[in-house]
Protein backbone atom coordinates (compact mmCIF):
# COMPACT_ATOMS: atom_id res chain seq x y z
CA UNK A 1 0.00 0.00 0.00
CA UNK A 2 1.49 3.29 -1.12
CA UNK A 3 1.24 6.97 -0.20
CA UNK A 4 0.78 9.84 -2.66
CA UNK A 5 1.78 13.32 -1.47
CA UNK A 6 0.29 16.22 -3.45
CA UNK A 7 1.49 19.73 -2.60
CA UNK A 8 1.77 23.15 -4.21
CA UNK A 9 5.39 24.24 -3.78
CA UNK A 10 8.90 22.91 -3.31
CA UNK A 11 9.40 22.79 0.51
CA UNK A 12 5.75 21.95 1.39
CA UNK A 13 6.74 18.29 1.47
CA UNK A 14 9.62 18.96 3.87
CA UNK A 15 7.51 21.05 6.25
CA UNK A 16 4.80 18.45 6.74
CA UNK A 17 5.70 14.95 5.55
CA UNK A 18 9.44 14.23 5.72
CA UNK A 19 8.95 12.05 8.77
CA UNK A 20 6.09 9.94 7.44
CA UNK A 21 7.77 9.60 4.03
CA UNK A 22 10.90 8.22 5.67
CA UNK A 23 9.01 6.11 8.23
CA UNK A 24 6.83 4.34 5.72
CA UNK A 25 9.42 4.25 2.96
CA UNK A 26 11.79 2.40 5.26
CA UNK A 27 8.93 0.00 6.08
CA UNK A 28 8.65 -0.89 2.40
CA UNK A 29 5.84 1.43 1.34
CA UNK A 30 6.11 3.30 -1.95
CA UNK A 31 5.91 7.09 -1.52
CA UNK A 32 5.15 9.26 -4.56
CA UNK A 33 5.46 13.05 -4.44
CA UNK A 34 3.65 15.47 -6.76
CA UNK A 35 4.48 19.19 -6.68
CA UNK A 36 2.19 21.46 -8.70
CA UNK A 37 4.62 24.37 -9.23
CA UNK A 38 8.32 25.11 -9.26
CA UNK A 39 7.94 27.92 -6.71
CA UNK A 40 8.67 30.62 -9.29
CA UNK A 41 7.56 33.46 -7.03
CA UNK A 42 9.28 32.41 -3.83
CA UNK A 43 12.32 33.93 -2.18
CA UNK A 44 15.62 34.02 -4.09
CA UNK A 45 17.51 33.79 -0.77
CA UNK A 46 19.05 36.32 1.58
CA UNK A 47 21.45 37.42 0.27
CA UNK A 48 20.12 36.39 -3.16
CA UNK A 49 21.38 32.97 -4.31
CA UNK A 50 19.94 33.25 -7.80
CA UNK A 51 18.02 35.53 -10.10
CA UNK A 52 14.25 35.66 -10.36
CA UNK A 53 14.57 34.25 -13.88
CA UNK A 54 16.59 31.24 -12.72
CA UNK A 55 14.59 30.63 -9.55
CA UNK A 56 12.32 27.88 -10.99
CA UNK A 57 15.37 25.85 -12.05
CA UNK A 58 17.06 26.35 -8.66
CA UNK A 59 13.95 25.46 -6.70
CA UNK A 60 13.36 22.35 -8.79
CA UNK A 61 16.93 21.29 -7.96
CA UNK A 62 16.25 21.91 -4.25
CA UNK A 63 13.03 19.87 -4.51
CA UNK A 64 14.86 16.96 -6.10
CA UNK A 65 17.45 17.02 -3.31
CA UNK A 66 14.68 17.01 -0.72
CA UNK A 67 12.88 14.16 -2.50
CA UNK A 68 16.03 12.05 -2.24
CA UNK A 69 16.16 12.72 1.49
CA UNK A 70 12.47 11.85 1.84
CA UNK A 71 13.14 8.63 -0.06
CA UNK A 72 10.28 9.09 -2.50
CA UNK A 73 10.06 6.48 -5.22
CA UNK A 74 8.83 8.92 -7.85
CA UNK A 75 8.66 12.71 -8.15
CA UNK A 76 6.15 14.39 -10.47
CA UNK A 77 6.32 18.15 -11.09
CA UNK A 78 3.35 19.85 -12.74
CA UNK A 79 3.83 22.92 -14.95
CA UNK A 80 1.73 25.48 -13.07
CA UNK A 81 2.76 28.90 -11.84
CA UNK A 82 3.43 29.79 -8.23
CA UNK A 83 0.79 32.13 -6.74
CA UNK A 84 -1.47 31.46 -9.74
CA UNK A 85 -2.28 27.81 -9.10
CA UNK A 86 -5.98 28.55 -8.64
CA UNK A 87 -6.04 29.63 -12.28
CA UNK A 88 -4.87 26.23 -13.55
CA UNK A 89 -7.37 24.71 -16.02
CA UNK A 90 -9.51 22.39 -13.92
CA UNK A 91 -9.85 19.73 -16.63
CA UNK A 92 -6.11 19.67 -17.26
CA UNK A 93 -4.95 19.36 -13.66
CA UNK A 94 -7.73 16.83 -12.96
CA UNK A 95 -6.37 14.62 -15.72
CA UNK A 96 -2.81 14.90 -14.37
CA UNK A 97 -3.79 14.01 -10.82
CA UNK A 98 -6.22 11.26 -11.78
CA UNK A 99 -3.43 9.80 -13.88
CA UNK A 100 -1.16 9.70 -10.85
CA UNK A 101 -3.82 8.12 -8.68
CA UNK A 102 -4.82 5.44 -11.19
CA UNK A 103 -1.22 4.56 -12.07
CA UNK A 104 0.11 4.41 -8.50
CA UNK A 105 -3.15 3.29 -6.80
CA UNK A 106 -2.29 4.74 -3.39
CA UNK A 107 -3.93 3.66 -0.16
CA UNK A 108 -3.38 7.17 1.23
CA UNK A 109 -3.33 10.57 -0.43
CA UNK A 110 -2.02 13.53 1.58
CA UNK A 111 -2.59 17.17 0.69
CA UNK A 112 -3.47 20.41 2.49
CA UNK A 113 -6.74 20.93 4.32
CA UNK A 114 -9.38 23.17 2.68
CA UNK A 115 -7.87 26.22 4.41
CA UNK A 116 -4.44 25.43 3.02
CA UNK A 117 -2.85 25.23 6.47
CA UNK A 118 -2.10 28.96 6.45
CA UNK A 119 -4.67 30.30 3.95
CA UNK A 120 -2.10 30.41 1.14
CA UNK A 121 -4.16 30.55 -2.09
CA UNK A 122 -2.00 27.90 -3.78
CA UNK A 123 -2.39 25.55 -0.81
CA UNK A 124 -6.16 26.01 -0.92
CA UNK A 125 -6.16 25.41 -4.67
CA UNK A 126 -4.16 22.18 -4.50
CA UNK A 127 -6.46 20.91 -1.75
CA UNK A 128 -9.45 21.55 -3.98
CA UNK A 129 -7.84 20.01 -7.06
CA UNK A 130 -6.72 16.94 -5.10
CA UNK A 131 -10.16 16.30 -3.61
CA UNK A 132 -11.67 16.62 -7.08
CA UNK A 133 -9.14 14.15 -8.50
CA UNK A 134 -9.63 11.62 -5.69
CA UNK A 135 -13.35 11.45 -6.40
CA UNK A 136 -12.88 11.44 -10.19
CA UNK A 137 -10.26 8.67 -10.01
CA UNK A 138 -12.84 6.41 -8.36
CA UNK A 139 -15.45 6.96 -11.09
CA UNK A 140 -14.94 4.88 -14.24
CA UNK A 141 -17.03 7.36 -16.23
CA UNK A 142 -14.09 9.76 -16.10
CA UNK A 143 -11.89 8.69 -19.00
CA UNK A 144 -8.69 10.37 -20.14
CA UNK A 145 -7.59 8.89 -23.48
CA UNK A 146 -4.84 11.51 -23.71
CA UNK A 147 -3.06 9.80 -20.80
CA UNK A 148 -2.39 6.63 -22.77
CA UNK A 149 -3.27 2.95 -22.46
CA UNK A 150 -1.37 2.33 -19.21
CA UNK A 151 -3.63 4.57 -17.15
CA UNK A 152 -5.30 1.69 -15.35
CA UNK A 153 -8.90 1.28 -14.17
CA UNK A 154 -10.75 3.46 -11.69
CA UNK A 155 -9.24 3.48 -8.20
CA UNK A 156 -10.99 4.44 -4.96
CA UNK A 157 -8.47 5.95 -2.53
CA UNK A 158 -9.16 4.37 0.88
CA UNK A 159 -8.03 7.42 2.86
CA UNK A 160 -7.52 11.13 2.06
CA UNK A 161 -5.56 12.99 4.73
CA UNK A 162 -5.02 16.71 5.30
CA UNK A 163 -1.69 18.11 6.48
CA UNK A 164 -1.25 21.48 8.13
CA UNK A 165 -4.19 21.21 10.53
CA UNK A 166 -1.73 22.09 13.31
CA UNK A 167 1.37 23.83 12.00
CA UNK A 168 4.53 22.17 13.37
CA UNK A 169 5.66 25.22 15.36
CA UNK A 170 2.23 25.90 16.89
CA UNK A 171 2.19 23.01 19.36
CA UNK A 172 4.86 20.48 20.33
CA UNK A 173 3.39 18.75 23.40
CA UNK A 174 2.05 15.31 22.58
CA UNK A 175 -0.84 15.33 25.04
CA UNK A 176 -2.04 18.75 23.94
CA UNK A 177 -1.74 17.73 20.29
CA UNK A 178 -3.76 14.58 20.98
CA UNK A 179 -6.53 16.68 22.52
CA UNK A 180 -6.78 19.04 19.54
CA UNK A 181 -9.86 18.50 17.36
CA UNK A 182 -8.83 17.58 13.86
CA UNK A 183 -5.71 15.70 14.94
CA UNK A 184 -6.90 12.30 13.76
CA UNK A 185 -3.39 10.92 13.16
CA UNK A 186 -0.50 11.84 15.44
CA UNK A 187 2.72 10.32 14.13
CA UNK A 188 5.88 10.30 16.20
CA UNK A 189 8.68 10.85 13.67
CA UNK A 190 11.39 11.46 16.24
CA UNK A 191 13.74 8.85 14.72
CA UNK A 192 13.68 10.81 11.44
CA UNK A 193 14.28 14.30 12.85
CA UNK A 194 17.74 14.54 11.33
CA UNK A 195 16.33 13.70 7.89
CA UNK A 196 13.75 16.42 8.38
CA UNK A 197 16.45 18.94 9.29
CA UNK A 198 18.36 18.05 6.13
CA UNK A 199 15.27 18.18 3.93
CA UNK A 200 14.39 21.64 5.22
CA UNK A 201 17.98 22.83 4.86
CA UNK A 202 18.29 21.93 1.16
CA UNK A 203 15.63 24.51 0.32
CA UNK A 204 18.38 27.11 0.49
CA UNK A 205 16.53 29.88 -1.30
CA UNK A 206 13.70 29.67 1.23
CA UNK A 207 15.88 29.83 4.35
CA UNK A 208 14.69 33.31 5.41
CA UNK A 209 11.28 31.84 6.26
CA UNK A 210 12.40 28.29 7.08
CA UNK A 211 15.05 29.62 9.42
CA UNK A 212 12.53 31.79 11.22
CA UNK A 213 9.96 29.02 11.59
CA UNK A 214 12.33 26.15 12.36
CA UNK A 215 16.07 26.68 12.75
CA UNK A 216 15.91 29.75 14.99
CA UNK A 217 13.86 27.88 17.60
CA UNK A 218 15.61 26.53 20.69
CA UNK A 219 13.00 23.73 20.84
CA UNK A 220 13.68 22.53 17.29
CA UNK A 221 13.86 18.87 18.33
CA UNK A 222 10.33 19.14 19.71
CA UNK A 223 9.06 21.00 16.64
CA UNK A 224 10.35 18.22 14.39
CA UNK A 225 9.09 15.31 16.47
CA UNK A 226 5.43 15.02 15.43
CA UNK A 227 3.50 15.17 12.18
CA UNK A 228 -0.27 15.53 12.39
CA UNK A 229 -3.05 14.82 9.91
CA UNK A 230 -6.80 15.14 9.74
CA UNK A 231 -9.05 12.65 8.01
CA UNK A 232 -10.44 14.35 4.90
CA UNK A 233 -12.33 11.39 3.46
CA UNK A 234 -12.42 7.62 3.60
CA UNK A 235 -12.05 5.07 6.34
CA UNK A 236 -11.62 6.52 9.86
CA UNK A 237 -9.31 4.86 12.37
CA UNK A 238 -10.94 3.06 15.29
CA UNK A 239 -9.44 5.48 17.80
CA UNK A 240 -8.19 9.03 17.46
CA UNK A 241 -5.56 10.12 17.31
CA UNK A 242 -4.16 7.06 15.58
CA UNK A 243 -0.42 6.48 15.72
CA UNK A 244 -0.29 4.84 12.27
CA UNK A 245 -1.51 6.34 8.98
CA UNK A 246 -2.62 2.86 7.85
CA UNK A 247 -4.52 2.03 11.06
CA UNK A 248 -7.74 0.23 10.20
CA UNK A 249 -7.04 -0.13 6.49
CA UNK A 250 -7.25 -3.70 5.20
CA UNK A 251 -4.30 -5.16 3.36
CA UNK A 252 -4.89 -5.12 -0.41
Radius of gyration in whole Å, from Cα? Answer: 17 Å
What is the top-level CATH class?
Alpha Beta
CATH architecture: 3-Layer(aba) Sandwich
Low-confidence stretches: none
Question: How are the strands ordered across the major sheet?
Answer: 3-2-1-4-5-7-6
Please estimate the helix content. Answer: 25-40%
Write down the secondary-structure element order. EHHEHEHEHEHEHHHE
What is the tally of beta strands? 7
**Shape, please?**
globular
Please state roughly what percent of the residues sit in beta strands, choosing from under 5%, 5-15%, 15-25%, 25-35%, 35-45% or over 45%: 15-25%
Q: Structural class given helices, strands, pairing? A: alpha/beta
Q: If you average the pLDDT, what whole number results?
A: 96
For the biggest sheet, the summary is:
7 strands, mixed
The first-to-last residue Cα distance is: 7 Å
By CATH, the topology is Rossmann fold
Give the arrangement of secondary structure elements.
Blueprint: E1 3-7, H1 12-16, H2 18-26, E2 31-37, H3 55-70, E3 74-80, H4 90-104, E4 108-112, H5 121-137, E5 159-163, H6 174-179, E6 185-188, H7 193-201, H8 207-215, H9 220-223, E7 226-234
Parallel strand pairs: 1-2, 1-4, 2-3, 4-5
Antiparallel strand pairs: 5-7, 6-7
Helix pairs in contact: 3-7, 4-5
Amino acid sequence: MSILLIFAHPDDESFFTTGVARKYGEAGRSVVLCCATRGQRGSTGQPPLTTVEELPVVRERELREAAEILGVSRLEILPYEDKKLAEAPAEEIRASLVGLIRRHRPAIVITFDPNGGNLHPDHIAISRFTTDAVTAAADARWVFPELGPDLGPAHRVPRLLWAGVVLPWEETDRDRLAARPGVDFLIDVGPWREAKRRALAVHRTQQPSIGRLFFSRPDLDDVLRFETFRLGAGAPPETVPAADLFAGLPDP
